[in-house]
Amino acid sequence: MTNTDIQLDYRDDVAIIRLTRETKRNALSDGLILALRDAFEKMPPAIRAAVIDGEGPHFCAGLDLSELKERDAGQGMQHSRMWHAALELVQHGPVPVIAALHGAVVGGGLELASACHIRVADTTTFYALPEGSRGIFVGGGGSVRIPKLIGVPRMTDMMMTGRVYNAEEGERAGFAQYLVPQGSAFDKAFELAQRVAKNAALTNYALMHALSRIAEQPADQGYFTEALIAGIAQSAPEAKERVRDFLEGRAAKVAANV
Ligand code: 1HE
To answer: What per-residue confidence (pLDDT) applies to 2?
Structure first.
């Protein structure tokens, strides 16, 4: 499927969602946000993982500022809620999502990246939250998700001072789990997506839906939720088959990464 804002391809059991507004540095128009929402809402059942990538030298320049018209307070709130609904489908939707980052990952682009489960950044990547200097605030869930990656003090500093993190600093701070050579973020993200797609679907579901929620719970409730999910996951026929494969020597061992 192609519209003017995203290109959606399926390669085996991986969906590739590419932001295709290169001339606007993949700025997130309402149309693009709704196209993203549709892509996750209508994900075919055979798809087991997704990669989000951006066309051109930048992953995403954030909110399309040309659409920031004369909204009143209520409309502004509804607009933010529309982003929340779309990015909720990225984080707690049908499949694990891997972001392939390069160039600018700023404002709403960083909010989108932070809704993904794994972030792979190449060495051209830089992270910023220019909302502070534009007189606005994050509205795509960034105030909830970004502190979970880097902490409230770092986010406050970024928004107050306009601080930009480069790729190495961003990896150290916790934005990306992988830092790869220039131009290779998509290939690495796709390789990871293929690997993730081979997991038991119920395991991926539990990782996507339970981990973030357990992190919000008091410890006692977290342990209880963990026990429920552990019991459900273990009882699945696919889990029993995978464990049997290991015990009978048919499954790969864990190997040191040398
Ligand atoms: C845009 C946008 C945009 C570029 N909305 N049009 N985001 C920002 O404040 C970041 C604004 N963008 C930039 O700082 C730079 O464009 C970049 C560092 C991302 C890339 O720089 P560069 O030199 O490669 O490109 P450029 O020449 O700045 O941009 C190319 C065109 O894209 C240009 O338009 P043109 O008509 O002159 O060709 C830019 O105006 C346009 N463009 N970024 C609209 N963001 C849910 S709330 C989220 C709140 C936010 O995300 S606020 C942060 C917004």
So the answer is: 45
Superfamily of domain 6-197: 2-enoyl-CoA Hydratase; Chain A, domain 1 (3.90.226.10)
CATH architecture of the domain with residue range 201-247: Orthogonal Bundle (1.10)
Choice from 5, 23, 25, 125 to test ligand 1 binding pocket (greatest atom count within 8 A of CB):
25
DSSP state of 43: -
Q: Tell me whether 0.95 is exceeded by the ipTM.
A: yes
CB-based pocket (< 6 A), ligand 1? 24-25, 27, 58, 61-66, 83, 104, 106-108, 130-131, 134, 136, 138-140
Question: Is 216 within 8 Å of 126 (Cβ atoms)?
Answer: no
Residues lower than pLDDT 70 in the chain: 1-3
Residue from 8, 85, 86, 4 nearest 44 by CA: 8
Atom 10 (ligand 1): residue with closest C-alpha?
Answer: 61
pTM of the model: 0.96
